[in-house]
Each structure stands twice: as C-alpha cells, then as structure tokens.
Amino acid sequence: MKHERTELLLYSLAVVVPTTLLAACFSLLQVTNNWAVNALMFLPGLVAAAFRLKLRQGFKSIGWGMGPPIYWLYAILLPVVALLISLPISIALGYAAKAPASSASGIAALAPSKILLSAALYTLIGEEFGWRGYAQEKLIREFGLLAGLLLLGILWGIWHTPIFYFSGAFPEHPIVGPFVMTPIDNILAVVPMAWLYIRSRSIWVPTFTHAFADILWGFSGLLFPPNQEIHSWAVLQATQLVLSFILFMDLKFRPGQSALYKQHTG
C-alpha cells in the first residue's frame, strides 16, 4: 500500500535525520557526557508514538502482555548461546584473551543492576518501541518477511551509525566500525529480535533480550578483551548468521497464529 510505504519513509527520515544532526552538534560542541548519547536513544520510540497518535493507530497492537514464559527463557538463551559459541573460538584463534586481574575493580564499578535498569529503559522507549513495536510489522506487511526484516536491519544500523561515529565508539576503527560493522551487526541481530517478538507477541521479551545481550557482551569484552577487534567481531557475526538462518526458517515455515506473518513469509 503506497500510503504505508510513505509513512515508513517519513518515519525513517524523522528518526535518522534528527539523530544525525544532533550527534554532529554534540561532537562540534564537544559534548561528551553519556546523557547526550543516551538521549538520542529515545528518538525512534518518541517518533513512533507521535506517528501513532497523529494517525490514530493506537497502542494496543504493540503487545503489552508478558507472553508465554518459554520465550523469556529463549530471550536469555539466544545471546548466551551466541557468546558461548563465538567467544571460545575467538580465544582459540588468538582474537581475544583473558583480561589481567587488575581490571576486576573496573568491572565491579560498573554496578550491574544500574546498567540493567538503564539499558532496559532506553531500549524499550528508545529502540524496541520504535523499531519492533512500530516499524517491523509495517515493513513485513509491505515487503514480505525477508525483505521487510532486511530493510529493518539496515534502517536500525543506519540510525546507529552517526551516534557511534560522532561519539567515537570505535576508537581503533573510526570509519569501519560505525559504517560497516554496526549496520552488519544490526542486520544479523534483527531476525532473532523479530523471532522473539513475533513468537511471544510481547514487546517486553525483545526489550529484555536487547538489554541483557548488551550487558552480557559488554562484560565479555571486559573479561576477555579482543586482541583483534574486527576478527573477534567477525566470529560473533558468523555465529549470529547461523542463528538468524535457523530462526528465519522457523518463521518462514511456521508463521504462527498471526495472519499478517502467514501472508508474508516470502
């Protein structure tokens, strides 16, 4: 439907353009506080809420229930399995190594409970509400399951790119990190997140996974820092690719109860 494609285009522009401009301004003004970057994480959700209100689409379809308990287990297992497969391979190949004991104090200072609460807040309001709760269903309805999720992953990655570029998130790879590694990572993460959302029919499940995975991999990077960042990243992406293929096939051949996904499994 032409109207919905126009809506998706406007939504994408309303999220990506302000994010890019604000991130650039923060860099020019030398604003280095974490709150500035964190504030940008709210944009996809705030814009999605504005579009829903403007177009009178309501909020019930987002899925505010807790969903079947089994998918909360999967929400934990998926990032854990990805890490348990990729990390030993990276260590064995010399791409990562155990951190010295002196780094333990720095790890303890991160206050895990505060990080979990913060990450959950930002990913729900800032990302999951927008990308999963608003854009995902529309993209699949318009372009089908494969192309819809691919477009979602690309948009998700493009939105992250200026944030990571201007904030210097990849000091060793200032160009490759934000412009190549980040979009690929988001493209490969979009299928597991979609699978959790579609199967559980709850926005809380992918939100939890998003927060949990960020924290898990963050601690992994502190405990076993990469010696060769790109190589270690590539191992993780290869693992995510395999998991994404399995979960995509499950969505394709077992679309579930939703008529939307039954009609668009191509």
Characterise the protein shown here.
The chain is an all-alpha fold. The chain has one domain. The chain contains eleven helices and no strands. α4 packs antiparallel against α8. The longest helix has 32 residues. The radius of gyration is 18 Å and the shape is globular.
Radius of gyration, taken over Cα atoms and rounded to an integer in Å: 18 Å
What is the domain total for the residues? 1
Low-pLDDT stretches: 261-266
**What is the 3D shape?**
globular
Total number of β-strand segments? Answer: 0
Task: Assess the beta-strand content as a share of residues.
Answer: under 5%
Report the total helices. Answer: 11
Helix content: over 70%
Whole-Å distance between the termini?
Answer: 17 Å
